[in-house]
Amino acid sequence: MAVIVIFMIVLLTVPVYVTSAQEVYINYALVNNTITIDTIHYNIELDANAGGIVKMTLKNDLGQEYNILVNTTIPLLSIILDNKTLKNGSLKVIGEEDDRVLVVQVVYNESNITVKERLYFYSWTPLINVNIETSSTVENITIVQPISIYMSNNESISIIYSYLKNKNFTSKVIASSGVHIIKSNETPVAYSILSVKTAGNQTKPGNISFFAGVSFRSYANMKKLIIKSMEENNTQEYVSEFVYENVTSIYLDLLATNYLPAILAIPPFAASVESVANLGKNLDMIARLQKYINDLEDRIETLNGTIKNLQDRLAEVQKQLDNYKGCEDHYKQELKARDYQIQRLQERLHKTGLIEASVFIIGIIMGLIAGIYIIKK
After folding, report:
1. Residue 152 CB: number of other CB atoms within 10 A?
2. What is the pLDDT of residues 234-292, one digit of tens each?
3. How far, in Å, CA of 317 to CA of 333, rounded?
4. Are the beta carbons of 201 and 265 closer than 8 angstroms?
5. What is the separation of C-alpha 246 from the centre of its chain, rounded to a whole number of angstroms?
6. Closest CA relative to residue 147, chosen from 241, 212, 243
7. What's 70-130 look like in SS3?
8. What is the mean pLDDT of residues 160-185?
9. Distant-in-sequence, close-in-space partners of 149: CB < 8 Å, separation ≥ 6
10. Is 180 exposed, middle or buried (CB count within 10 Å of its CB: 0-12, 13-18, 19+)?
11. What pLDDT digit, counting tens, does each position of 64-82 carry?
């Protein structure tokens, strides 16, 4: 009986899982050395042989998509070690949690050094955590971020570098390509690329195509920021390189999205975008953020209702189980009585004729049927 109750409880929990998975999900497919990851925020193809993310399509709540890697030969989050791009790594999934969190590890073996890159993907946010560790101290290591802009859409680009100077948060727009040395009195915080189709002002909101940024969680050894740009096939490609010196570990966060409420919710990107895009006056984004909050509240209310229904049904099943436990002793006595009657039947078969025995068997069967009927009721 206990097994039946457990099975019923498992069945009751299935609708909650399916409902939530449809709302917020992370799906992946691992083939050879390449993994494809799909969430409500993006679709990614990470190729360990190529050395990074080779495809990335962004999604938003309006059903729009934006491909930020177009005809690029440089993977996103690729690693340059001593002027050589790491390729032919070994990829595997090392952690996953109920369609909510996915942890992927890529290991590169280069000469006498091993580089491990761990990426943490989430269903509820476009933020991707990146941890890079080396088996020994390296003098020079670079993380690469390429971004493609569609020139046909007449988009303008703002490249933003955010840093702490004398404990004050500062964001500045970088106007030209080249090498930007991190000054000794600066603490790097974030680097962002903002694409705008139409500029906003006090009366008209701007139209932001997408936002891509990196937050530097290990900033002590970051020495240079290198920006390169090139135009190809009606797209403008920007390649950003973050250069570290004398490190064994690097921690950073990647955010690439055109789902604007996510930008507002995640520091330090919100502040850096606010400083150049007047987001406080962007009525369109505020309306979309409100819609996002309302959707979350509706989901929470639905889940709470489902949980209450499950609790009520579980209480009912537990009550039935208690009732069955109360009847257990009674039916044990019944079975004991039936055993006694069977023994008497065997005795009668020897002492009396077949007809009398048959009538006695019918009586036993009718008694058993009545007992079964009572149990079912």
Report:
1. 8
2. 778 889 999 999 999 999 999 998 866 666 667 788 776 766 655 555 545 555 566 66
3. 25
4. no
5. 32
6. 212
7. CCCCCCECEEEECCEECCCCEEEEEEEECCCEEEEEEEEEECCEEEEEEEEEECCCCEEEE
8. 83
9. 155, 157, 195, 235, 236, 237, 238
10. middle
11. 888 888 877 889 999 999 8
Encode pLDDT of 201-212 as tens digits.
555 545 667 888
DSSP β-bridge partners for residue 79? 143
The pTM assigned to this predicted structure is 0.68
8 A C-beta contact, residue 285 and residue 279? yes
35-44, 221-230, 261-270 — most confident range: 35-44
Cβ neighbors of 174 (< 8 A, separation 6 or more) are 159, 160, 161, 180, 227
Tokens of 184: 């000794």
**Running DSSP on this structure, what letter comes out for residue 258?**
S
Q: Which residue has the tokens 């609708």?
A: 15
State what percent of residues in the chain have pLDDT above 90. 28
> Degrees (nearest 5) of the Cα angle 19, 22, 26?
125
Instruction: State how far the Cα of 155 lies from the Cα of 145, in Å rounded to an integer.
Output: 19
Measure the CA–CA gap between 22 and 66, rounded to whole angstroms.
22
Instruction: Check if the beta carbon of residue 45 is closer than 8 Å to that of residue 30.
Output: no
CB 191 within 8 A of CB 223: no
| pLDDT value, residue 122 | 93
Question: Is residue 275 exposed (0-12), middle (13-18) or buried (19+ Cβ within 10 Å)?
Answer: middle
Is residue 141 within 8 Å of 240, Cβ to Cβ? Answer: no
For the residues 80-109, what does the mean pLDDT come to? 91
Q: Residues of 17-43 as b/e, b for ≥16 C-beta within 10 angstroms?
A: eeebeeebebebeeeebbbebbbbbbb
Contact 314, 12 (CB under 8 A): yes
